[in-house]
Design a protein that fits this description.
Length: about 270
């Protein structure tokens, strides 16, 4: 396993500046965001010189780009918003292919019209699920054409809230391009350490073989998010179980400040087997 971090943890809109900060903080991989290259996260187009600058930054720093953020609200109540997001996803998938990035991450969506990470009671309706299936089928077609995988993350505020939901989606779509990003802190809202460990273990068992990337974020006992290693998630157990199921990708941390990043890198590195 390798250690990674959200590139957006570090300020800057120049890829070399950002990836140099990633390396300096102790990480050898990153989940990239086009904002780190001076563009919107979901741009309408990506100039050739931007692709070249990112490739040059990777070569100069040795930081591997393991994923590219491509999140948009896949079940937004306004169909026009979905159509715009899907078109921009296609732009990012083509960029990922050019950059040699194997995974573009998605947001399975919410009926909340303003915040794609906000829960809405209609997320659990059959209509929301049907809209997700229709949108995901279109996204998979784009991914197949680009030769890039899609990473979906079970997330309490979105349609896919659990590993069980994720498997249901895979079975409905039937594409090997659908992979999973597993963030233990997004599998529950409020839990004690023992309950959290059980939930995470169950998700790993269900998703084994389809996990493309892991995230390292934590939860406080009150449900608020926390820096990895400071909450109820049992990270030694999580890392051990990732190894047991054969995961050999990047564990990418986020939700922390640039100042916290080196310390979290040291903590997570201590959990990796020599």
């Amino acid at each position: 396993m390798r250690l990674g971090i959200f590139a957006k943890t570090f300020s800057g809109n120049d890829p070399l500046t950002v990836l140099a900060a990633v390396r300096e903080a102790g990480y050898d991989s990153a989940q990239f965001n086009m904002a780190c290259a001076g563009l919107p996260a979901m741009p309408d187009q990506i100039p050739a010189e931007t692709i070249a600058a990112i490739l040059d930054a990777v070569a100069a720093t040795g930081v591997e780009l393991v994923a590219l953020s491509g999140t948009y609200n896949m079940i937004h109540p306004d169909i026009a918003v979905r159509e715009t997001g899907l078109r921009r996803l296609g732009v990012l998938l083509d960029a990922a292919r050019e950059l040699g990035i194997p995974l573009v991450t998605l947001c399975t969506g919410t009926r909340d019209p303003d915040d794609q990470w906000a829960h809405h009671p209609d997320n659990a309706t059959p209509e929301a699920w049907a809209d997700l299936l229709a949108e995901m089928a279109k996204a998979v077609a784009l991914a197949e054409a680009a030769g890039v995988d899609l990473g979906i993350e079970p997330e309490q505020a979105n349609v896919v809230t659990s590993a069980e939901d994720g498997i249901r989606l895979v079975e409905a779509i039937g594409s090997a391009r659908i992979r999973f990003v597993l963030d233990p802190a997004n599998l529950f809202e409020i839990a004690d350490r023992d309950t959290a460990r059980t939930i995470v273990a169950g998700a790993l068992d269900l998703l084994a073989g389809r996990i493309a990337m892991a995230h390292a974020k934590d939860r406080n006992p009150d449900g608020s998010f926390a820096t990895a290693g400071t909450g109820v998630v049992d990270f030694p157990d999580f890392f051990g179980r990732l190894e047991v199921v054969g995961f050999d990708g990047s564990v990418v941390t986020h939700g922390l400040s640039a100042e916290e990043a080196p310390g979290v890198a040291r903590y997570l590195a201590g959990l990796l087997r020599p």
